[in-house]
Amino acid sequence: MRKVLIDNCVPLNNGDAALIFGLYKQLKEKKFDIEFSCLKKEEVEKVYPNYKWHSSHINTLFYRICFKKNLLVFLWKFFIFIKLTVFNNEYKSNDIIISAPGGYIHSYYGIEARMYILYLCKKWLHKQVGIYSQSIGHLNKRDQKILYKYGQYLDFIFVRDEVSYKRIKSYGDFNNISLTKDAAFLLLDKDLQAKNISGKKVALSVRKWNHEGRNMQTYYHLLHKIVEYLLKNNYEITFLSTCQGISGYTDDSETAEDFLRKYNYKQGKNIKIDKKYYDLEALQKEIRTFDFVIGTRLHMCLLSLINGVPSFNISYEEKGAESFNYLNIETFTVDFNSTPEDLTEKLQMFLTMDLIEKEKIMEKVRDISKEQKLIFYDLYSSNFERKAP
Fold first, then answer.
1. Could you report the per-residue pLDDT of 19-36, keeping only the tens digit for each?
2. I need a surface site. Which of 223, 230, 245, 384 has the fewest CB within 10 A?
3. What is the CATH architecture assignment of 3-186+368-384?
């Protein structure tokens, strides 16, 4: 049995968990033995005890010291080179190394450590190595060079939207780039059906985001307009997110509390905040209790769609708008910092869809899921079935 390591996972974030386990599901069907490298290993093992986890080499104290202002990067690289090439480790013991789906390649997240580890696995450990279903952001000049320097050696790089595909092509003369879509669609089962909705329960996911000149005050004003419309039309609102309930980790319920406080909304019959942590299966079950989802977190929206619940996206990054474009529901997305004059009209169209319109969306979701599984099969056939050199 061939062994796969899915590297640099963040499974406590249920958006990332959807991507990771979507890929896992397809690999498992092909009888691979699968392990994971992740952040916060002890907490992850408590939530998902039936999988094999390794601690990531990224975001350790030593990593943070070395990468602070890029002063000691050479020292970290030397340490990792010795650790991975000399000693026994999870990279040596696996045949295929895949950078976890959804790992956004962007300068503000830092890309050098992740790319360097993949490069070592390819050039020194002689593994099959690639990046699967990731977005490519605006990289500074230094990171553009790093991406090409290491990325050109990988067996495959799959990007999950057209914007990312064009952007990475502009960063270098890659010959290993392919286009896919979001790996969360790999989770979908065949029996997806649109719900014949009669209720008025809305799950609303929010998040804090200050990168790329985004303004939280403008975002809060947009949220206020949405909440105001929902309350006026007698909808019940529950703030629910893919990221919540874990101590020491991003918690979107705190952002929800801050928003309600600033706009003097009170929790009660029609507004509440769900602060509970859900694993991926439990979160999907909870989502299915709602009639609609309005999500700032993209994967709150995608998880709702693959569970038969219509979603409306507040797009804080390009990946949100791009996903809703290829789903042919670009009408149901607004920008994080927009003040759209047609917001009320968009919400009304979204909340009053009939069953035929909902079924058209679900049919598109099913089609994309089938397409992604075929793309995965091509990757499996061309890379994973053959023996590594």
1. 999 999 999 999 999 999
2. 245
3. 3-Layer(aba) Sandwich (3.40)
